[in-house]
Write a structure and sequence with these properties.
The chain is an alpha+beta fold. Helices cover 42% and strands 23% of the residues. It has 3 domains: 255 residues, 3-Layer(aba) Sandwich (Aminopeptidase); 235 residues, no CATH class; 183 residues, no CATH class. The strands form 3 sheets. It has a 19-stranded mixed β-sheet that branches. A two-stranded antiparallel ribbon has the order 8-9. α4 links the parallel β3 and β4. The protein is globular.
């Protein structure tokens, strides 16, 4: 064999890696002068700019402005436009979140409707967020889609554009629609569009269990689908929720879409329209328009069908098959591995003891890579402590450090392979590697039964090639070329997965996951890599190490902050009216260069689930909440206490900590729960206060404390505004003045 052949084959496979990652990009933006039957993100940009002028949380004046803009736009399009003004709730023991919300429903009537198609995004934002990606892009895409559909042929089914309120406070608008609105009882399918960042492809990442029907219809609806069962399996194991969750809980079939790149802008004040990647909104819109046309013109019947496995391959498109088949594929992989061990032993092509030894070395390489990448993330945190101010400690340019982590894990595998090949042949090494992969496949079958495709098909293809090589059906250069080609399915499935793993979890969490997936990713390339490093392992090690150094240097040069890429700084002011003490507080691990003026020598205190920096400061006289008794009665051994809560002017949310209570009613709307709870958070329009009805224990005083939050920090306590390179941190506590008062009734 030509000595250059292994290097050329490895270069070709690495090119496939780069191409497979590059292909995970959103489509190009369609310009504003495109035909009005085509979705144009450039046209939708006008709506995005109008609705993301500033933060617009539920109950704020800016939230009302955004709602009025949406209503006017929908009426101009010609849609039947109504509002649902009510109390919405979200219950998770021992906490209840509730608030006054105003949903907007704009309906395009069908010619012969069966059930409604609901297209949904939320128009509220976090209190300190511009809201362009979350979820202004979804709202703007809905308005552009509505204009296109209203000008075209009318669908069979009603299409309801549902602009929900109160998502950020706890899915309040979506819950209220499902539980209280008549249309919520007649939904054929719900299509939700979200954003966790400001860039990246729009991925369909969540469906209901029993998803066969909706996945097959989704594949018919769109030209190129970006969806896979692995996303579905991962997301359902997480504690996260979106507006899709109440529909899913109610058994309403749907599709949940989101882009997740640009995590640094998630819930950030910098999440403004100019920073939004319009390609992501274009992808949102293309999905939305295609799905609206498809589901708007089908008859909804029984949609019950078992789970399916689904994923997309370049050129091939979307592959769908019953998830029950995965047991067969898993069994086939195990059988193939056993055949390889038997054939290899008989042909004296592998050593069974060597297989066990290389399996253990493969496992050890996973452990070493996890430790190495954990060390890299620790070092990044030490060198750039202000990056910990951001979600997942990622900053604005984590991609350079992602490349470092990939390089470090790659070095671990190159060294492990080089050490193994000094004693064992490649057939033994591959058999040992596939022994561990088979164990992982069995675990995947147990815990992620619809997503085993990421392992079983690459394993199966490589085992077939190994069997052919073992029985000498493939030899020489032909064998090496075919072995390289057998690596391609693994690359196509794993390379994008590694890329999205970094995007999804940032620098703080991915060390174990990234290390494992990178090492497994190299497992598919091992036959070609083995030949390439046969004589020159140190050249490859030096090349990868050089890439790591260069990436770190470039990452260091991009680690600063400016007006274009400002630092997020956590700081809020709390005053306890009962104790007459005030404190500056922060959720950061340590003060940054700006907030240290308020937090120098601050103590770290545990408050509930949080560990906060706290420093006592001067008291600023400010109004506190007023709580009065409207009625107090005892019947059948239960005390019913009706309170009227009137927070101070400007309050956007209030947290009420209380003794255990049941059967809360707020504004006469009951919270349906048999479990007691001790925490009630209310948001929305506070101008008229809230009536709160509690069922509580008799014979002793009932204690509660209410903490109301209003935007801004008090100048009297030393706040003079933010410099141009600093913005408020994410989260609803930051950049607020909180006033707490305790009561006993």
């Amino acid at each position: 064999m030509n000595k250059l052949t292994p290097h050329l084959l490895l270069a070709a496979l690495l090119a496939v890696v780069l191409i497979s990652v590059y292909n995970t990009q959103p489509p190009d933006v369609v310009q504003a002068d495109a035909p009005d039957s085509v979705f144009s993100a450039q046209r939708a940009m006008n709506d995005l700019q109008a609705i993301t002028r500033s933060p617009h949380p539920t109950g704020s004046a800016e939230n009302k402005h955004v709602r009025e803009y949406i209503i006017a736009a929908c009426q101009e399009i010609g849609l039947e436009t109504t509002v649902q003004e009510t109390m919405g709730y979200y219950f998770r023991s021992p906490r209840v979140v509730g608030g006054r919300i105003v949903n907007v429903l704009a309906t395009l009537r069908g010619t012969d409707p069966s059930r409604a198609v609901v297209i949904m995004s939320h128009y509220d934002s976090e209190p300190n967020a511009g809201g362009a990606g979350d979820d202004g892009a979804g709202v703007a895409a809905m308005l552009e889609t509505a204009r296109i559909l209203a000008r075209g042929k009318k669908p069979l089914n009603d299409i309801v554009f549902l602009f929900t309120d109160g998502e950020e406070q706890g899915l309040l608008g979506a819950s209220a629609f499902v539980e209280q609105h008549p249309v919520g009882k007649n939904v054929g399918v719900v299509l939700n569009f979200e954003g966790r960042g400001n860039a990246g492809i729009s991925t369909m990442f969540e469906v209901n269990p029993g998803n066969g029907w909706v996945i097959r219809e989704f594949a018919k609806a769109v030209n190129v689908a970006d969806a896979n069962a692995l996303s579905y399996e991962i997301y359902r194991s997480l504690p996260n929720d979106t507006d899709y969750s109440p529909f899913k809980k109610a058994g309403i079939v749907g599709l949940n879409h989101a882009f997740i790149d640009g995590f640094v802008y998630y819930h950030s004040y910098a999440d403004k329209a100019p920073k939004m990647d319009l390609r992501s909104m274009q992808h949102h819109g293309e999905y939305m328009l295609s799905e609206a046309k498809h589901f708007g013109n089908i008859r909804f019947g029984a949609a019950a069908e078992g789970d399916v496995t689904y994923f997309t391959l370049p050129v091939v498109g979307m592959i769908i098959y019953p998830a029950g088949l995965n047991m067969f594929w898993t069994g086939l992989c195990i059988a193939g591995l056993l055949l390889l061990l038997i054939a290899g032993h008989r042909k004296q092509k592998l050593s069974l003891s060597g297989v066990l030894a290389t399996a253990l070395i493969f496992l050890a390489s996973l452990i070493v890579a996890v430790l190495a990448l954990t060390g890299v993330t620790w070092l990044i945190g030490k060198m750039y402590p202000e990056m910990t101010n951001f979600y997942a400690s990622s900053g604005y340019h984590p991609e350079y450090f992602f490349l470092v982590m990939t390089g470090v894990a790659s070095i671990v595998w190159i060294l492990a392979l080089y050490l193994m090949r000094k004693k064992w042949r490649i057939m033994t090494i591959m058999a040992g590697t596939h022994l561990i992969l088979a164990l992982l496949l069995v675990l995947a079958q147990v815990y992620t039964p619809t997503a085993v495709y990421v392992l079983c098909f690459p394993i199966l293809i490589q085992l077939i090639i190994l069997l052919l090589q073992c029985t000498e059906k493939l030899v020489g250069m032909k064998s090496e070329v075919v072995a390289a080609l057998a690596s391609v399915p693994g690359i196509l499935l794993f390379a994008p997965m590694i890329y999205f793993l970094f995007i999804a979890f940032g620098l703080e969490m991915p060390a174990p996951f990234a290390a494992i997936t990178i090492i497994i990713g190299w497992a598919w390339l091992t036959p070609t890599l083995d030949n390439a490093i046969a004589d020159t392992p140190y050249r490859y090690l030096a090349a990868v190490a050089g890439i790591c150094v260069i990436a770190w240097v470039v990452g260091h040069l991009h680690a600063g902050y400016s007006a274009e890429e400002p630092l997020q700084s956590s700081l809020w002011y709390e005053y306890d009216a009962s104790t007459r003490k005030a404190h500056w507080k922060s959720a950061q691990r340590m003060p940054d260069h700006w907030n240290q003026q308020f937090l120098s020598n601050a103590e770290r205190r545990k408050e509930g689930f949080w560990s906060l920096l706290t420093k006592e400061t001067q008291v600023v006289d400010t109004l506190s909440s007023v709580v009065t008794i409207q009625s107090d009665s005892v019947a059948d051994g239960s005390r019913t206490l009706v309170l009227f809560v009137k927070p101070a002017p400007g309050t956007l949310s209030a947290q009420i900590e209380m003794d255990s209570a049941r059967a809360i009613h707020v504004d006469t709307v009951p919270i349906q729960s048999d479990e007691p709870f001790t925490l009630l958070t209310l948001s929305g329009d506070w101008s008229n206060g809230y009536q709160v009805r509690l069922n509580c224990a008799t014979g002793r005083p009932f204690h509660l404390s209410i903490t109301d939050r209003r935007p801004g920090l008090p100048e009297a306590a030393g706040f003079k505004g933010y410099p141009e390179d600093v913005i408020p941190g994410t989260g609803r506590r930051n950049h607020t003045t909180a006033v707490k008062k305790s009561f006993a009734f």
